[in-house]
Each structure stands twice: as structure tokens, then as C-alpha cells.
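RETRY 2/3 - previous attempt timed out on the joint model. Re-submitting the same 650-residue input unchanged.
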Amino acid sequence: MSNTAHSKAAKEFLKNQKYAKWHDQTFWSVRTKRDNMAYGLKEWEQLRETASAIKRHTLTHLDQYLDQFSTNAEKNGCIVHWAKDAAEFNEIVLSILREHNVKKMVKSKSMLTEECEMNPYLEAHGIEVVETDLGERIIQLKGQKPSHIVMPAIHLNHDDVGELFEEKLGTEKGNHDPTYLTYMARLSLRNEFLTADAGMTGGNFGIAETGDIVVCTNEGNADMSTSCPKLHIAAIGLEKVIPNYDCLAVFQRMLCRAGTGQPTTTYTSHFRKARPTAAPMHIILVDNGRSQWLSNPEHWESLKCIRCGSCMNTCPVYRRSGGYSYSYFIPGPIGINLGMLRNPKEHSGNVSACTLCLSCQTVCPVKIDLGDQIYKWRQQLPSFGTANPEKKLMSSAMSFVFNHWGIYNSALWVSPLANRIPRSIIYLPLNPWGEGHEMMQFPKQSFHSLWKKGLSH
Amino acid sequence: MSTKSQILSSLKNSIKERFPMPDIQIDATTYADPLAQFISMTKSVGGKVVELQAGDDINQLIRSLYPDAKEIASSLPEITIATRNPDTTPTAQSLNGTDVGIVRGEFGVAENACVWIPQTMKERAVCFISENLVILLPKAAIVNNMHEAYRRISFNDLGYGTFISGPSKTADIAQVLVMGAQAARTLTVILIP
Ligand code: SF4
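RETRY 2/3 succeeded.
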């Protein structure tokens, strides 16, 4: 992909101005809900600091914690598998399903199975896979991919879903009321839960000390997926393992507050073993690049991510260009970084999708320096042979500013002035974001000065 | 070499510096009246709270809350109005069509309305498959926050437990909040003495 891949795709998104505006405002209101949650806890910054330190510790002891996790899960009676890459993962899943003669599997949301492209693989081998998170089900019926990691169908409005359900589920013509549509999906999915031979879940956390797989959902679909079928397979990336419950409490408190602005998900479920009437539970631990990424001195901390979605909700570029404008399956600031770890040549087109406003790292509950990392990737672009001259010019200006911290600080300090610069200047043709993108409104106080006053959040 | 040892040794090679475990001492929010906070949070996440008064009959109370319920599922000995029992049900699937499921919660969490429900029945489907879920919760068993909660939870041999806060919900269609996605459509916590 060329370096302007993102801005080209964004143009497509911006064609529907009304929708683009709705998208932007919706995510801003999610961001506002998150702020209310964060302000509501005096210990919020302490939680972020601790969460970040726990992740740094865990990732740099991951060999030990994974060993402990698998030992305890096996003690509980689970069968633990290790997959080095996507292909091995898909093969393991298929072989378990074949062993149990599974024709249909229900599953809850998992970005990992998306990463490994598991569904098409299983379907090609004759297994029916039914997504049970409502958003995931909608895009599965539509033959699409998620456009957000927590709100996968955010790119569709209720009319889109209504028309889709008329066609696929035989719902009433013209009734596009979200309550009605949700109820019809519930009825259809209920039938899938009752007739599936297996249920698959991802996992938000694996607990080394106890061997638990912890899954957080609002819909209860992970629990429905595992409380009827006779087989449960849980799949997690290596980085999901954390030491113990004291650590879990820190992450559980932040995940949903940061992501959707709720105090908790409806369900926080702990799976240690299969139901007494089911076959033993299988757990698959997937590497697929992670153990290598950990060796990257500048970018390993991207692995701290708990997939809350907060960084994309707040990102002015994501809000105004949508998930499909990015070439990697995870969009937004974290997706830009993970895409570069995965395959810099293929995904370098995304690194321009950043204004360096650093709003992402201000909200990230595990304090990943997302914007700084994107900046660092930009500096490496020429070495991937993909830099586009226009953006390169921008980058070198940025690199000048960033390499002179005094200037960086004063540039931020004067940034409120930017709000008064006439549009014609902001939207000079050289600024690739000028076209179609409102310039980010700088806060009246910069993040830096807020931070210095200890007000940063 | 097995995939496991390959992965573990690849991790060992990648790790340059091992960071220490931080001290997890969070100066966490507590509440002057944890029960009042729990009740108000339960309402704000879409649940309902009813208190069983001394001398009142729990079965009558549930009946009055769900006068139209036909199928009631519970394995609790004090629930005499149950028509189904998740301990003796032939399959988990046969609990489908339950109007009201009744389970016991061990303790509630004031900050977010979570109730800890360890699996005590053979088929835990009752917690999710029922149209309406009722949780019996001892009124005195409320902790402030998840730090306290995770120090308190315990598992029996069934190896499953869940925190439930409010009814099943989704906003996946155009960000409109709808109660009753895939699991219970309503949730009532009955506080018992
Ligand atoms: S990078 Fe941080 S903010 Fe973004 S999804 Fe991950 S944890 Fe959330």
C-alpha cells in the first residue's frame, strides 16, 4: 500500500458527510463518558500508573507467567495448547472440533480469531461459525470486518441493520427500531446457542496464579456460548496473561471505564474448567509474532494493550475517517502501532493517520506512549522504502520540533493561537489533513501544562 | 522442540531487562454507606433492588414481582415456587424458556453493582438463559470496590464464577442502548436479612 493509503480511504468515508459527523460526535460522547468515569475516581491516575507497571513487569517475565498459567490451567483439568502462528492456531482449533465431531460453533468476540482469520479457515473446512456478539453478528451477516475493536458495527446505522435483517432474518419490512432489531437478533441467536456443538471465547485476561480465563461482556454472549454446548475452547494471545487477582482488580476497574465509560461490563466471568456435563475445556495460547515484538526496544510496550478501544474513541483522525480507512484490522492509534510491528511495509500507510495531538496516550489506561511511538515509526519510514515526499516533508519538520524539546514545548504553549488561524492557512494544500478534515481544536491549556499541574487524565 | 518450549525460549531471548513487580497499594475510593451506593449503582446499570422485609415470604415476594411467570428455575431449597431445577435438568438446553431464574449471590460491590455468583448448580445456564434473573443477596455482604472483591472471591470444585452487574445489554445498533441482548433481559437483586 502506498503511504497515502489512509487518506485515500478516508476520502471515501467522508463522502457521506452526515454519517461522518455522526461518527465523530458519537465517539466524542464516548470519550466524554470515559472522562466522567475517570474524574469520578480520585485514584484514576494511580490505577493507570500501576496498570502500566504491572504490564511492564508481566511482559518482561512472560516466560515465567505463561509457564505458571499453563501449569495451573492443566491442574484445573484444562487442555492447554501453544500455537506459534495463525496457521498453527487454526489447525489446532480444527483438530479439536473434528475430534468432537462439531458441525456448528458459536463464538464470542475475539480480535485474535480475526487476526488469525480463523472463521474463513473453519468454514472452508465445513464448520459453521456463528458470531454471537450482536455487532459481530451484524458484520458477519453483512460479510464485513469490524471497524472498531469494541463497537465492531459502528459504521452501520439502524437502517443498514434493519435492511440486512429483513433480508437475512426475515424481520418486518421497514421496522428499523434498534430495540426491535436487537430482540429479533436475540431470538435468532438463542436458537444458535441451543443447537451449537461447541462454544469459543476469547479472553480479556488469563490469571497465572489460578489458571482462570476471564471474559468481560455486556451481552452475556460468552456465557451463553459456553453454558449450553458440550465443548468450550478459549483462545488468547500470549500477552493476555497477568499474575494474580490483585492485578486483575486494577485492570477490571479500568477496562470498561476507559473503553465505553461504564463502571464495569455486565458480566466478568471466570472460567477454570468445563461444566460437569461437558468435555474438558481447551485453552490455546497464541504467539503469532508477539514473542518477537517483545524484543523491539522502542515498540515492545505496545504489547501492554488491554484492547479497551479508548485510544481510537478519542483520536481525531479515527473519529473523522472510520475504521476502514486503516489497512490493519485493528484501527486507530494502537492499530497503527501493532500494524507496524506486524508488517511495516504493508501498513506504513497508516502512520500518517496521526496529528500527534497525543490525546491517545493521555487516555490509554495502561499508559502506552502511542503517539510517540507513531512518531518513531515515521522516522523509520525511509528504511521501509515507502515514505511519500509530501509526508516526509511534514515528518522532517516534526522531527526538527521533536528533537528540540524547548521548541516543542513552546509550540504547544502557543497552540491556542492555532484556533484563530484562518481556514485558508490551515487548509494549505501541503497539509494532507487539511482536505476534508477539520483541524483538531487545541485545548485552551495544552496537555503538557495540564500535566504539570497534575490535572492530566 | 515442542511449540511451548520454542515460544518460551523465544520470549527469554526477547526480554532485555526484567522490570520489578510494583507495589499494588491503590488508595481506592470507599463509601460511607456501601449498601446505598450499591443500590444506586444497580439502578444506574438498569437493575432493580427490592428488600425482603423481616417476616415476609421470599416466594410470595418473587410471585408479586413476576405475576405472569410460568416457568421458574432454581436449585435453592427455600424457593418452593420453582418449576425447574438446574441441578436435575436433563440438559442445559432444557432450561430455555425459563421466565424467572433465581440464584444466590455471595456479595455485592458498591462501586459498580457487580454481584459475585459462584456456580453452585449443575447447569449454570440458569444465570443467563432465563428471561429475568433474580439474585438473592445478603444485605450485609457489600464490599467497596473490586480490590476488596478480588480478595474475597472463592471457587468450589465446579470452577466457575461470574460478577453480574445489571441486565444483559448492547448498544451495537447505532449506539442505542437496549436491555436484553443475549442473556437476562431484566435483573432484580433481592436484599435478604
Ligand atoms: S492502546 Fe491503550 S487505549 Fe488503546 S486500546 Fe490498548 S489499552 Fe486501550
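Confidence is low (pLDDT under 50) at residues 392-457 of chain A. Closing ticket.
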